[in-house]
Amino acid sequence: GINLLAKEEDGHTAEFLLTLPLGRQKVVTHKYISLLINSLLFNLIAISLEWLALLKVDMPFNETAFIQYHLPALLLQLETWSLTFAFSALFKKKMAGLGMGLVLLMYFMDMICRIVEHMDYVKYLTPFYYANATDRFANTSINWTLIVIAFALSMCSVFMAKIIYAKRDIN
């Protein structure tokens, strides 16, 4: 997500892309949809192979816990893609390091809020908190407040990317 819009400008293809009879809003929307399709296909393949492997080795597993793990993990990916997609609209150059740094920061924030008791509020700032495998397989309930926050943040990030990219000077 972090390079999706920036690579157009960095690779000097934005000038051509924006001469087509498409608005910038449509370009951003289609870029985001392509990100979603690629990600969903990747996850579908990975989850299917994992499921088949578990069936092949005849290992008993809890299907509900399996699904309850993968759905929040997919939402975690959606949230990080959306955040980095918004950052992609901000910068003219590819910023893969920033994207990796953001993901690592959110991961460490999850670790901190689990270790330090008075830092419990940090769980609202990191998607890794609601997608924790230990919680999912220990049959703890899903915190729907965090899920709603994650989905809302994802949608806000996409709208921010649209607003930012619409006002950008593409040279």
Summarize the structure in short:
This protein is an all-alpha fold and 171 residues long. The protein is built from seven helices and no strands.
Notes on the protein architecture:
This protein is mostly helical and 171 residues long. Helices cover 70% and strands 0% of the residues. The chain has seven helices and no strands. The radius of gyration is 18 Å and the shape is globular. The two termini are 21 Å apart. The mean pLDDT is 79.
Please describe the structure with a list of short key phrases separated by commas or semicolons.
single chain, mainly alpha, 7 helices, 171 residues
Order of helices and strands: HHHHHHH
Overall geometric form: globular
**Assembly state:** single chain
Report helical residue fraction.
55-70%
Largest sheet: none
Total of DSSP H or I helical runs spanning 4+ residues: 7
According to DSSP, the number of beta strands is: 0
Instruction: Give the radius of gyration.
Output: 18 Å
Strand content: under 5%
Distance separating the two termini: 21 Å
Category from helices, strands and their pairing: mainly alpha
Helix and strand layout, with pairings?
Blueprint: H1 6-10, H2 14-17, H3 24-56, H4 63-90, H5 96-115, H6 133-137, H7 144-167
